[in-house]
Amino acid sequence: MSSRVEPLLPRFASVEKVIERLKPVEPVYVLHPGRFAAAAKRFIDSFPGDTLFAVKANPAPLVLDQVYAAGIRHFDTASLPEIELVRGRFPDAICHFMAPVRAPGSAKAAFERFGVTDYVVDCDFELDKLLAETKSPKKLRIFVRIATPLGGAVLELSSKFGTTPEDAARLLKRVAEAGAAPAITFHVGSQCLSPFSYAQAVEMARRTALLSGVEIAALDLGGGFPGPYPGNDVPPYHWYFDTIREALQTFGAKVPPVLCEPGRALIAEGMSLITQVILRKGDSLYMNDGVYGSFDELTLPGWTADYHTKSFTLDVKNRALPLPGEQRPFRIFGPTCDTLDVLPRPLMLPENIAAGDFIVFEAIGAYSVAVRTSFNGFFPDNWAVVGN
User: Which of 246, 227, 276 is nearest to 378 (CA)?
Assistant: First the structure.
């Protein structure tokens, strides 16, 4: 299955061909359809439940097309605009409103206009607001979010959302008493490098269900499945799926339907980024993209992952050739006038790299496009496709 918008984009046999043909002076996002397909297949074939793509990781329509073409039909949408984007593009897609806090009126619009029936709460206020806005509890599946312990993930996500098992059990009772289907969710944290974190969280969910005394309609394991970045020791994906299956067995004969919400695990590998060096000053390089563009995630506290890079130069025949030479560390500045526009760690590149040469960053599909800005007038938005 191919994306419906791919024919509108220039298509090339390789990244080198993109450089040779376009000679881009602005950054170019490169889509790799085969990589999107392989990532989706991992989850569709091996995860024991429904896979929701976390739209926040990359809401670019061209990327959504790739995810949909790869077979994903469920989407974790955290706002009404995300729901409008997905349903406007894919009328048969199933949106799940999985943000624990929603703007007033957004649940009402999602329910009435788009038929969204899955929602998340972690406190009485949001539950009361949800029930008041939708007025049809018997049509809803309401997930109560529990906070999971810190550990295993590069970025924690439980200090902002989630409640204790005891409080969650009380909320689950309220959900059931209101006539909605009670469910449980959690998020172990972004870029989780420990499959055991999911087993630990599933056990917390099981104990929460027992405390509540109600039958759980579904269990959403959230996201956190890691992207394959250098600098992170990423376990094989089947370790996560095997660990989750084993943990679910503790529910006994009544294992609830299971969901998950991968973001970067579905899209990180599917995109490369071609950048160009615009100036070299000694050991400092000035690039046409930076932290206000595609590289904001590298600045996050505790983030240790990097992107695999390749460097190319155009020869006199306009052929894109790999840059030779030993690798040495360079400080990388972005194109804006802000001195904060600098990658937080040096980049190892060929020692003879110069202005006009190209640096290709692999596995940059997640949280690059999603958080880019137009600061100083720079806004990367050129696209190409490599492969089938």
Answer: 276
